[in-house]
Design a protein that fits this description.
The protein is 37% helix and 32% strand. It is an alpha+beta fold. It has a domain at 107-261: Rod shape-determining protein MreC, domain 1 (Thrombin, subunit H, Beta Barrel). The strands form two sheets. Strands 1-2-5-4-3-12 form a six-stranded antiparallel barrel. Strands 6-7-8-11-10-9 form a six-stranded antiparallel β-barrel. Residues 262-266 have low confidence and may be disordered.
Length: 266
């Protein structure tokens, strides 16, 4: 208490001055005379001029906050749109699969791709069904666009499929309408080569390529692709046909395993 009293005595002049200024301003601002109104106006102008930078900074901060909220909303809407587009694409694919299974003359098991490239020395995909669902080794795997491979490793609940772009994959095929048969091997991207075709075989660009039926694995006439180029090799008794396969191997989601052939495929 004594220290407080000493402080008041030490700064009494400053305190009296502050109280006097406060009382003067209070009395001055409560006066409604014309001169006081002019002073109030001048004071208001000075105050607004001084406070305008602070108001600008505040508005910029609010604008930045609103911009950030709009960016977050934009990202959210973009993600929702992408999800809707993916769902629509998946629904369209599932609709095509259901139609294919309904019209097919094969007994098919539907499977979902759960992994790609499970083996380092094999181009493959992994499916979510296995021997518990009736899957066996060396069964054809296809999509509505065509053959994509065969089962090679079958577990109780999963299956590894060797797909057509594996370096060791071979498929006996027939080119229609000529009926010439050959062996198909993947080259690059979505292009394969069919070799061991007869030199005089009449093959044209656009001809359909299907399974030959010579293999014990693949029924005949399963779709494979179409011819995009025919090469006559000099000094050879064979022709080479380049074939583009239709399935998009990098975007496989759902496939079918051919369990057995119900009737002969047309």
């Amino acid at each position: 208490m004594r220290n407080f009293y000493l402080s008041l005595l030490r700064y009494k002049d400053h305190l009296i001055f502050l109280i006097a200024v406060t009382l003067s301003l209070t009395i001055l601002l409560k006066n409604d005379s014309p001169d006081i109104l002019i002073i109030r106006g001048k004071f208001s102008d000075y105050f607004s001029f001084i406070s305008s930078p602070f108001a600008w900074v505040k508005s910029m901060a609010q604008l930045q906050e609103e911009t950030q909220l709009l960016r977050e909303k934009n990202i959210q809407l973009t993600m929702e749109l992408e999800a809707m587009l993916r769902a629509q694409e998946e629904n369209n694919g599932l609709r095509d699969l259901i139609k294919f299974k309904r019209e097919s003359q094969l007994k098919l098991l539907a499977a979902k791709v759960v992994n790609m490239g499970a083996s380092s020395n094999l181009s493959s995909i992994t499916l979510d069904i296995g021997s518990n669902h009736g899957v066996k080794e060396n069964q054809p795997v296809l999509v509505p666009e065509g053959v994509i491979g065969k089962t090679v490793v079958v577990g109780e609940k999963s299956t590894v499929v060797q797909i057509i772009n594996d370096v060791n994959y071979r498929l006996s095929v027939r080119i229609l309408p000529s009926g010439n048969a050959g062996i198909l091997q993947f080259i690059s991207n979505d292009v394969c080569e069919v070799r061991e075709l007869q030199k005089h075989a009449e093959i044209s660009i656009g001809d359909k390529v299907v399974t030959s039926g010579f293999s014990q694995i693949y029924p005949n006439n399963l779709p494979v692709g179409e011819v995009v180029e025919v090469i006559d090799e000099r000094g050879s008794f064979q022709k080479v046909a380049k074939v583009r396969i239709k399935p998009k191997l990098g975007a496989l989601l759902n496939v079918f395993i051919v369990v057995e052939e119900i009737n002969e495929v047309d």
